[in-house]
Hints:
The protein is of the alpha/beta class.
Amino acid sequence: MKKKSSEIIISLQGINKSFPLEVGGEQQVLFDINFTVRAGEFVAIMGPSGSGKSTCMNIIGALDTPTSGVYELYGQDVTGMTADELAIVRNEYIGFVFQQFNLLPKRSVLDNVMLPLMYRGLPMDERISRAREMLRRVGLEKFETYLPTQLSGGMKQRVAIARALAGNPKLILADEPTGALDSKMGNEILRFFQELNRDMGITIVMITHEFDIARYADRLIHIRDGHINYDGPIPRDDKNL
Ligand SMILES: Nc1ncnc2c1ncn2[C@@H]1O[C@H](COP(=O)(O)OP(=O)(O)OP(=O)(O)O)[C@@H](O)[C@H]1O
Ligand SMILES: [Mg+2]
């Protein structure tokens, strides 16, 4: 049984987001988004292309700020933070996993995994041993000297996950983490997320446009045209979404 904690770690209250249009005026992308995520949850945010998933994720990940509304991460109001403060919040709490892996192509696998530890003031030998431990966890300990270009897509994503884990985040934000993988490798990554969530209690918010991927989570938030139209347990099928 999964431990249910009551600690709210993500709280979006009346979030709106607009982008300026080049022709003048603006385009509103998110409309009055309200939800909370508690520690230990595995949430999928699903919706069609252009519905505002990544925009929402960028706000959750303190990569962008809302136009209006209140966003609190671990009880801290992120809305009014400076860029430097946002960077500290990201580095301290969040591990990011992206569709295109975002690895540094000319740096070794080990260097890539060590990246989030750069700002932690840890001695070099501790950074190395921590990165090695993370690579062991994703089954890539034998590949630490490889370059990302020498790895398969699934292996690259495992390196990206090891990197996300290296900073010991309480929260993993994954935007289409299996979007660039075939279904076998994708399933492997999704099962690994389930393990991280169940065994280590890491909170996961994962974006996807596919119901079969969302099913790996315990809760589904469905967005359509910038509005939440479903928030609850994973339904039996996606007919009514
Ligand atoms: N930085 C930006 N500047 C202007 N418009 C943007 C910006 N980011 C996103 N948008 C617009 O916001 C809308 C939603 O984009 P978003 O990337 O959130 O969609 P998405 O649900 O993640 O789609 P996909 O499944 O294709 O990744 C789109 O119309 C997009 O053009
Ligand atoms: Mg997107």
